[in-house]
Amino acid sequence: MPERSETSRPVPFRGGGFHYVPRKAVPWIGFVLVLTLWQALCSFGVISPLFLPSPEAIGVALWRLSESGAIFSHLGWSLQRILAGWAIGTAAGLLVGLTMGIFSAARSLGLPFVSALFPIPKIALLPLLILWFGIGEPSKIAVIALGVFFPTVISAYTACDSVPRNLIRMGQSFGLSGQTIVSEILLPGAMPGILSGFRISASIALILVVAAEMIGAQHGIGAFILSAGNLMQTDQLLAGVVMLSILGLLISFILGRVETWVLRWR
Questions:
Q1: In Å, what is the CA distance from 136 to each residue of 131, 146, 164, 200, 256?
Q2: Which residues of the chain carry a pLDDT beneath 70?
Q3: Predicted TM-score of the model (pTM)
Q4: What is the reported pLDDT for 185?
Q5: Which residues 6+ apart lie within 8 Å of 203 measured at CB?
């Protein structure tokens, strides 16, 4: 065999498989660059402040709204509606979705209704819900609950399907009862999928509360944004949008912490 040359070099490792490597500084750099470019375009008059205010103007508007307490009042109204609607829709969706995931008869009965009703934009049902529940809070909470219900149902029964069948068969072979299999094998195995569904349903709840408040409310972030738009106060409008973004990030962070705590056994 030929001797190995002293100048030969080891072959570099090429089996990374497109492994994701986090770059913590990159998002912040990109965010700062976008804001800087945006501010520069507004400062030099390239963009009219009527159509797109500068980040500085939005920050000033946000500070003034914070000082007056108006933005926090609107946020409080929106949060109450989101929490009530999300809790009702999630509880009902988990009940129906887990039932469909466990029992074949429930799946056969419920799947056609879920498939038919899920694509309907729930905000289109708000006028009907107003007729049923009135113009007050129940109609807004109902439309949020409806919007949350169907994604939760789908995530719950598909999460049950994702649990490996061999684990369930193993439990059956050891003589475990159906209740034990559900509580010790099925539910823990389905929990990652269910918690992922919570993130989707929380985003839907945030979208629906803004739409519902724009249609029939005097208080709330949606009503505030609509009022600012009607008055052409685009700095306040975008300040409300920024608060929505912060609220969405906060909800996502809380759900992430809950997911980490619930799935700490993994």
A1: 11, 17, 46, 26, 32
A2: 1-8, 11-20, 266
A3: 0.82
A4: 83
A5: 248
State the CB neighbour count (10 A cutoff) for residue 215.
17
Q: What domains, with CATH codes, occur in the chain?
A: 56-262 (1.10.3720.10)
**The pLDDT value given to residue 143:** 92
pLDDT (tens digit, 9 = 90+) per residue, 195-240? 888 988 999 999 999 988 888 778 888 888 888 888 888 888 999 8
Structure tokens at 34: 């976008």
Query: Which residues, at least 6 apart from 152, have a Cβ–Cβ distance to it below 8 Å?
Result: 89, 90, 92, 93, 94, 97, 197, 198, 201
Q: Which residues contact 132 (CB under 8 A, 6 or more apart)?
A: 139, 142
Surface-to-core class of residue 132, CB atoms within 10 Å of its CB (0-12 exposed, 13-18 middle, 19+ buried)? exposed
Q: What is the pLDDT of residue 4?
A: 55
210: Cβ–Cβ under 8 A, 6 or more apart, which residues? 78, 220, 221, 222, 225, 244
Which of 109, 255, 137, 114 minimizes the C-alpha distance to 196? 255
Using an 8 Å Cβ cutoff, are 129 and 69 in contact? no
The contacts of residue 146 (CB under 8 Å, 6+ apart) are 89, 122, 125
